[in-house]
Amino acid sequence: MTLQDYHVTRSSNAARTAAILGALILIALVAAPWWAGRADMRLMGEIFLYLALASLWNLMAGYAGLVSVGQQAFVGFGGYMLFALTMFAGLHPIAAIGLAGVFGALVSVPVAVLIFRLRGAYFAIGTWVIAEVFRLGFAQISSLGGGSGSSLPVAIVKSLASKRAMRESLSYWLALGAAVTVITAVYLFLRSRKGLALTAIRDNELAARSLGIDIWRTKFTVYVVTSALTAMIGALIFLQKLRISPDAAFSVNDWTAFVIFIVVIGGIGTIEGPIVGTLVFFALRETLADLGTIYLIVLGVVAIVIMLKAPKGIWGLIRARFDLQLFPLGYRVMVPGKTDKS
Fold first, then answer.
1. What is the pLDDT of residue 41?
2. C-alpha span between 292 and 299 (Å, rounded)
3. Is 60 helix (H, G, I), strand (E, B) or coil?
4. pTM of the full structure
């Protein structure tokens, strides 16, 4: 057996099978308005938006090491930009969603310059403080409802589509598109040279610096891009809700605590983890939400048990046991005659 008999690949049988199944599932999800009820579509839309938020937070914390507990700042910012741009600038809601991302990126630049001076727990606390500043700031804008909030005017809502069924379908498709776009963008980014640099920083920051990787710039880029996409997701969230208020827009519980729970139980630092975590979170929520505070207690118990028994999350446990990767990022050396099951 010579060196030429070996070959290097990034793909695998499991990844190819997952791609085919994913394409079939995506086709079925796109056709949901023709087979699912309104309540089902609203639930699936919410699942997609949480999946997008979790994937973005995982990119930032799981790969760049930027553990933020203040991403609700950009969720709320994006929501308020949607309302401001449609109500005062007369933009179509879809155009406003795109501009919300642009403004989110612009705002994140000075925020990053400020909080990147902090490390570890201080960074996490700093992001939460920034989110509180955003909340208090928007609560002072009387034209957007002040502390009590505001609702989207009927004319703006009808600009999406004249019929309610079509508006709900469009809102659902936007949420599905957001989730697919975010997961695809994260996957392609992590397979790029910048993604390789980011992985090197995560594994060993000192070694990455010695190889000439600009750690500050790489993390800065991830933070700005993540913030922009989070602002767009925030705009989509409040386009579905049709009403916004400071407490709802900048809720640390809804837009950060639950997202962190999803990533931690699913598997931080993996693309598959947020997908698994989102499914588990919504399964628990739909099953136990009527139990009130018991539901939150169960979530806490589940998180503690998984962190003790599977520190790398559910997907980390699966990957360690079966050597399974649905989104392969690294290269694999294939041995002649050996069947690739992963």
1. 94
2. 12
3. helix
4. 0.94
